[in-house]
Structures are given as C-alpha cells and as structure tokens.
Amino acid sequence: MRRISRITVAGAATASLALALSACGGTSTSASSSSDSKGAKGLAIAYDVGGKGDQSFNDAAYAGLEQAKKEFQYDTADLEPTEGETDADKEQRLVSLAKQGYNPVVGVGYAYATAVKAAAEKFPDTTFGIVDDSTVEAKNVADLVFSEEEASYLAGVAAAKTTKTNTVGFVGGVDIPLIHKFQAGFAQGVKDTNPKVKVLSQYLTQTAQEGGFSSPDKGKSAAEGQIEKKADVVYAAAGLSGQGVIEAAAANKVWAIGVDSDQYKQEALAKYKDSILTSAMKDVAKAVYNLAKSVEDGKPATGIVRGDLKTGQVGLSNSNPKFADDTKVQEAIKTAKEKIMSGEIKVKSS
C-alpha cells in the first residue's frame, strides 16, 4: 500500500511562501549509495533567488516537478532559498535531499554550481541537475542549459515590429553573463529588423544578493525610467523583479514582454495580461521533467543538455490574441526563426 505524507515548512526568503514536501509512495529509481539513505524516492528541486511564486523561472521548474510527480507517482520535494545563504548552505540542502533518497536532485539556477559539484561528489549514485549552468563537469550531473539568446532575438523582432516610438527597453535582473545572453539576442533582433529602433538597456544590480532577481520595486522603477524616455515596448529578464516591469508597462499603457514562462497566463499577473505582448520562453519545466524521466527510465541524462529553437524548448508565446493575430509580426518572427534554425542568422550571446 502506498503511503501519503505532507510536510510544510515556511521558506525563509519569502515568508509568504510555504515549503511543501509532498510524498506519495516509492519508485524503482535508485537514490543514493549512502548508508543512511531512507530508500528510493523521486525528484527534488531547490529553488533559486526569488523562490516559488516568481511567476517565471522557479515556477517553471515546479511545473516540471508536478508533471513528474503526477506521471511517476513518487515522492517529490521543493525547497526555498534562505536570505544571504552561502554555497555551503546550498550544498547542505542538496546533500540533505540526496540522503533522504531523492533522485534526481536539481539546483534551479547558476548559483548552485559549486553546491551541485560538491554534492555530486559525495553521492555518485545520485543524479544531480543544475539549470542554467554549463560548468559542472561530473559523471552524475546534467547541465540543463538553454539558448535564451534565440528566444530573445525573436522578442526583439516582435518589439521592433510593434514599437511606434522607435524606442524599446531591456531590463536585466543582474549584470551577469547569463542575462547578457537575453540582452544580446534582443538587441540583435531589434536592429536586424529595424536599425532605426533605439534599445535602452539597464541592469538592476551587480549581484543576485542585492535583489536583482527578487525586487519588483526595482524592476518597476527601471521600466518607468525607460518609458519616460519613450520606450513603448519593455522586455524584462529579471525573475520576480520582472513583475514590476510588467506593472509599470500596464500603468503607462505600453507593451511588456515577459520571460521564461508564458506570463500572459500567470494568475498573479492576470490584471496586467492585456499589456503583455508575448513572453520569451524557455521550457525549464520540460528540462526538469525530462531529467526525472531519464532517471525513471534507468538512463540518467548527464553532461550538457541544451534546449533551443530546434528542440522546441525556447520560443515566443502566442497567448495574447492581439499578438497572435498580427500577421505582419508573425510572418517576421517565422522568417527569423527559420533563418536561426538553418544557421543563416547567427545569434550573439554577449
């Protein structure tokens, strides 16, 4: 008989968010070689800055966890980050999950690189995954990465075709190479489509610890500054901070372009959805689910696992009817997509 248990723990980084550890029976998946493992379980994820409820990156990972949980009928766990935590704190979180028998264990975000590498060495029979980092080279680690610049290029095409002021904006959460990919692709897409369009760019912080990915107020302020400079389409790659960008766009009756998830469909953003032109998506949910499936099938994925336009794991959402029904914009995006996939267009990543 299967057992069902649920443990709820408050997340320190976001007091309003609950930490759910849901369990519904064992699985045949191997969990760990550790003698104190409590037996095989299933998928566990540890969230990045912003935590669950960001309507973006972390929530996409959770969607992948939920899909795996439903399909494989096994235990899952999802853990919140803590404020000001160190690499050692992250490592301990991953080690704890591995000791409990979860397999795979996924760190959501590049900040987990050091922790994933250390935990993977301690638990060689557990498969670990890290989203958005390609530097963890280990036999039992899958580096789940995406060609964000390709989706961002298409967002740039959409922005250039939509703007009426010939000025658009980009708001990056943190000034790091990962977010540079979003900016580079977006700017190139804009310029290739209409060289007359000006791209305003701003990063909210230099480090994640300063709140670049978790401060809607910072995002709102940055977007308002760009809108004052006539930007009428603003693209945010800023995690939870992007909600502030979308709010500012709605208040000023201009367009916002969301990121990572289809933000037009996010319940927390429902009152702003008519101002969300599209979203540059990367299918973190599919990547997390696929890793869990590979372990469930007995063939764990390892090494760099990339999602791009060819795999269908990056692209633009078409949920907003005004965007989906705009023939000229859609034709331009289709043409750009075909040229990127054929190699005719080489999208910059920095």
From TrEMBL:
Occurrences of domain ABC transporter substrate-binding protein PnrA-like (ranges): 47-349
Main location (coarse class): membrane
One GO term describing the cellular component: plasma membrane
Signal peptide as annotated in the record: 1-20
Membrane topology, as annotated: Lipid-anchor
Family: Belongs to the BMP lipoprotein family.
Protein name as annotated: ABC transporter substrate-binding protein
